[in-house]
Structure formats: structure tokens, C-alpha cells
Amino acid sequence: MTNIAKGLEGVLFTESKLTFINGAEGVLTHLGIPIQEWAENSTFEELSLALLNGQLPTAAQLATFDADLKANRAIPDALAQVITHMPRGVHPMQALRTAVSYLGLLDPQSEDTGAEARRAISVRMIAQFSTIIAAISRAQEGKEIVAPRMDLTHAGNFLYMLTGKEPTAEQTRLFDMALVLHVDHGMNASTFTAIATSSTLSDMYSCMTSAIGALKGPLHGGANEAVMDMLDEVGTPDKAEAYINAKLDAKTKIMGVGHRVYKYFDPRSRVLRDYAEVVANKEGKSTYYQILETIEKVVVERIGSKGIYPNVDFYSGTVYSDLGIRKEFFTPIFALARISGWCASVIEYTGDNRLLRPDAVYTGVTDAHYVQLQDRQ
């Protein structure tokens, strides 16, 4: 009997030095360094460069990389026009997918699949993803697109382009930390999709467009938006316990709870939980946090023994909401962070590339013959 790994679970197809996950113990590391240390000490820019290089950068390397990102933040006017004329109400991930694909049409280097070209394009895309997403948000609201500033960090500049107002140091730090937590997460669906596309020696823009398509799905990138829908459905903290017990009794899927890899707390969720509590209390928006706190308590008590715990999506939505970000843009922001991991993984795999070509167990008939159209019943 042939064993089929549904969803490719447990299937090893490559080696990587970038990210390690121990789901049983709730461990996540990048280059061997725990995610908690990255979140506490690092920045999106540094982690992005570390993954691209495969090692911690020097101060000089980081300064050069930061300067390159800033120099490439602006998007072509032609792309800005495309974004401005997109239909109102379009799904933000559709808009992002289209914008990134169009960006490839404007890049004279796009068809170069060499190592140096992949690296150069990666830097440009990491820089421009934030500008594209902020532009989509503003265009969809009928607002003028805000040009990037060169004196702000990657996180701070995005919030500025999104709102037109310079964020506080605390808001910038919070958003930067959220980006760090989402930069890479091993062979998830979108990263695998990017690698699968790149294994054909396709261009980087096709790889990233493929990844965006995978991330768009609610079982991958859209879970944090679904968590916010759940919170709105609960309404008030006093209704949370009865609500979640009813869901558990009915064996209904609870968004933001459970993970394909983790059988203990997602370490990223622990970091976000602490920040979410502080921000929620400071901003006077503690209702969402109180609901989540109650739901987590009931979930851990009732099904934690089965290895089902809150994941990173459980708290990320409340953090983004407290920063004034509309929930339909939670998934594009996931892409804003994950672009670095996608690019780093593609570059790493390309170094020892092999076309991905899995197989399937055939379960159809084997002795059929063609029947002429007029003879078919």
C-alpha cells in the first residue's frame, strides 16, 4: 500500500540554513537565533539582510543595505497610475498580485535569472512592497498616494505612507517587531510555491506573484483577518467564554487557533500577546484583548492537551488594528514582511536548483477505450 503524504506533510525536499522550527517545543529560530531575540534586538532591515546573506551582517553591510532599500522605495509612475485606476473594492491581495506582476514588466532586468540579478531584484522588491501596499490602500480610499521618505525606517516609512502622518517611535517599534515576527517561517505554502516556481528557472517576479497567490488563501495569510471577524462577532468580553465553548462543543474551526507545525504555543504569538496587551491598554482599546485573553484561556484548558494552541494570527490582527490598519490589509502586510523570506529562500534554493516534479498515485481506470461522440450515452 502506497503511503500518501496529504498536504506534503512530513515530506523533505530540500535543505536550508535559514529557519528551524521545532513544533513540539514551540521553537522558531533564524540562522540558529531564537525568534524572541530577533524581535527584542533586531529590525526588519537587519533580519532581511541576514537571511539574504545567510549570516549576521556587519554594521557596514547593514548600513549599505539600508541605504539601498531607501534608494529603491519609490515606484515607477506607470505603476502608480495602474494602482490609482484599479477598480474600487478590489481585494487588496489581487491588487498586490497585479501590481507586482506589472512591476516586472517595467524592470529591464526582470528576465535575468542569474544569482546577481536575483539578489538585486530582491532588494528592490523588499523596498517597493511597502510602497505598493500603502499606495493600494490609499488609492482604494480615494486618497492621494504618499511618496516615501528617506529619513524613516522601513516600518516607520510604511506607516507614514499609509496614513500621511509620521508615526510615533512606539508605533514604529511595534510595527517593526510585527514585521520581524513574520519575515520567514520555513517551508510554508507561499514559500514552497515561490520555490516551486523558481525551480523552473522562472523570473523573480513570477516567483513572488506565485507566492502572493498562495498567501491570499484564508488557510494561510488570511487567518488574522478572520480572527478580527470573530472578535466582532463575539462583541464584548462577557460573551467570550460562552461563544468559544459553543464553538468547541460544535467542533467548529476557530481561526487563529491551531497550527500545522506547532503542537505547543507558537513562539511568535507569545511575543505579540505581550505587546498587544500593552498597546491595547495604553490606547484604550482593551476590549479585543480581553476577548482574546478569555478565548485563549478556554482553548488551552479544553484542547491544549491535544496540541492545539493560539498561533501568531491570534494576536497580530489586534496589533495591526491598534495601529489604525484596516483588516482587509492584514494579509498584504503579511506579504510586506514575508517578501524577504520568499526572496531569501528562492536565492538559497537556486544555488543547488532541481526542478520540483512530485507525482501522484493514479486511482482511475486503466482499461478504458475511446468511444465515438455519437455512440456515447
Number of helical stretches of at least 4 residues: 16
- Could you give the order of strands across the largest sheet? 1-2-3
Beta content comes to: under 5%
What is the SS-derived class?
A: mainly alpha
Mean pLDDT: 92
Please give the CATH class of the largest domain.
Mainly Alpha
Shape: globular
Helix percentage = 55-70%
Instruction: Show unreliable segments.
Output: none
What string gives the helices and strands in order? EEEHHHHHHHHHHHHHHHH
What does this structure look like?
With 377 residues, this protein is mainly α. The protein has 2 domains: 15-218 and 327-350, Orthogonal Bundle (Citrate Synthase, domain 1), CATH 1.10.580; 223-322, Cytochrome P450-Terp, domain 2 (Cytochrome p450-Terp, domain 2). Helix content is 56%, strand content 3%. The protein has 16 helices and 3 strands. It has helices at residues 35-41, 44-53, 59-71, 77-84, 92-106, 115-140, 154-163, 169-182, 189-198, 204-215, 223-234, 240-249, 267-282, 286-303, 312-322, 330-350; strands spanning 19-22, 27-30, 33-34. Strands 1-2-3 form a 3-stranded antiparallel β-sheet. Strand 2 and strand 3 (33-34) form a beta hairpin. The mean pLDDT is 92.
